[in-house]
Amino acid sequence: MVEGEKDVEKLREYGFAATTNAGGANSPWLPEYTEVLRGREVILVPDNDPPGWRRVSIIAKALFGQAARIRVFDLPTNTKDISDWFVAGHSECELIAMLEGVHAV
Fold first, then answer.
1. DSSP-assigned letter for residue 13
2. Which structural domain, as residue segments, surrounds residue 46?
3. Would the pLDDT of 105 be above 80?
4. 105 domain residue, yes or no
5. Overall domain count for the chain
6. Domain annotation covers residue 104
7. pLDDT tens-digit map of 34-51
8. Sign of torsion, CA 5 92 49 19?
């Protein structure tokens, strides 16, 4: 779950399933969205700004007890969003390793 269509398309380009809700960071999280994600593993990828983190907090609270697993991918402080993270030269394998808690040596 990312904040915008650009990030959805970037993740799909790298082979990930991704979605967002209409309206950006300040749009309401609707009960229907929670229902669609019920029982699924959800990885929340906030934009690295206050509205992005507020949005992730709202979504995580709505999904708590509904999703099978909720994780938040915390981007480095100098990265605006997941699209910028990939543009900076990171790979899908690196993202998977980070999400799985595997660190390169």
1. H
2. 5-99
3. no
4. no
5. 1
6. no
7. 999 999 999 999 999 999
8. positive
